[in-house]
Structures are given as structure tokens and as C-alpha cells.
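User: Predict Reverse transcriptase's structure from this.
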Amino acid sequence: MYTLAVSSPPKKVLHSLESLFAKFFWGQSDGKDKHHWAGWETMAKPTEKGGLGFSRLAHIVDACSMKLWWKLLTETSLWTKFMRARHSRFSHLSEAVTNNRSSTSWRRIIRGQMIAEPLIHLLLGDGRSSACLERWLGGDTIHPNILTPQGCTIRDLWEGSSGWNWRKVIDWLGQPATTCLLASNLRITDTTDSWSWYPNPSGTFTLAFARLVAKGSRVTNIIFAKFWQACILVKCTARKNHFYNVTKTS
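Assistant:
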């Protein structure tokens, strides 16, 4: 796990490791591998889809990549300051890109951004974040128009005790964004802007929820879900193998 958090091994290496996992799970008899009733890809499906809920290593790599992007976005450590200064000194962090000279680490972070960014929402505080490049009105970012000042912040749309300057909101952000803001209770406060991770109800980023995102959508299958909840209590691997074979072939 720690290795995958700091490096992104080639797909061939990940596949070889998963083959070893499968061999260990199905076991051996008389020094020979037992029959594999299902590959690791099938067993790694959620229990609701008939799998065992294991994780593909590629999904763990993607989850760790998302964590790197989250740290870069939300933290102010020495590492994040260095990465921001190197890759987005003169632009917003979300506009950072890769090129032929980009390091493997930076390419991985940008991949994490592509997966995670649509699921990250700005929690409005003092409004010092970008009015167009942050997801603060619930959907996508806002496309600036010819009237939008470069580098405008959310706070620039606020008139203190008077509330929102609706003329600026309409001119700078457009009608769709204005409609969203009218329907909300958003207002500028004294707290610092922060970010929320949508997949987790608490808004906190966790690798567990990031792995679910990397796995993709889940289809609920109550029978399989209840079945494997009961099987967790069974410690004998051979018995679990038998149950799995019966359910998959019936």
C-alpha cells in the first residue's frame, strides 16, 4: 500500500501481483495450484455485483493519485508549496497541465485531478477563491465571458452588508450561475474557503471512498450483499471458496 502511494508501477507488474494474490486465495494441493474458479478481476468486483469486494491494484493507484491531488489542493505543507510554485506559479491550480518534460509524479497527480476534481466542491467562506475556476455553485466551473475581469474572486461579487452585487453576478458569471446563486443561501463569512469531498457524506477525503470512485458505479444486488456479510464470519478459506463456486455456477 505504501509503495503504491508514492509510485505508479507498470500495468504488467500490477497484473503479476494480482496473479500471485489469486494463487494465494485459491491455494494449492500436492504442490500444484488449485483451479481458479474466478480471476482476480471478477473477485475484485463489489459484493453487490457478485464479487468479493477485493481491490484492483490499479484502483488503489488511482485512489492514491486522487489523495495527492487533494493534498495539493487543500494543504499548505512544504511539498504543496513547492509543487504549486513549480507547476502553477502564474495560473490557477486547476489550469495546471502536463507536457513532454513533466515528471512521472506530476503526470500521476494530474491523472488524480481528472478523476477527483468533478467530485470536489468549494465550501464558501471568505470568498477569496476564484469565482470562475472553482466549483462553488454546485455543478461545473463557470466559463468566463468578455465582461469577466481576469482573476476575479467570489468576494469581488459581494458588497458587504448589501449582499451580492447582482449586476456584477449577471455580467461576470452569466444567467445560469445567477439562477443557481439566487436559489442558494450562500453568503460571504469570516471563515476561510475550504473544500468538500462529495463521495463521503462528511465531506472528508478518505482512501476508502476514493477506491469506490476508482472502481466506478455500483449496482445493488441485495442477495450477494447479504450473502457475503454472512460469509465474513466464516474463517475457513476452503469453505468460502466452495460457497463462491456454487453461487457463480448456479
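The radius of gyration is 24 Å.
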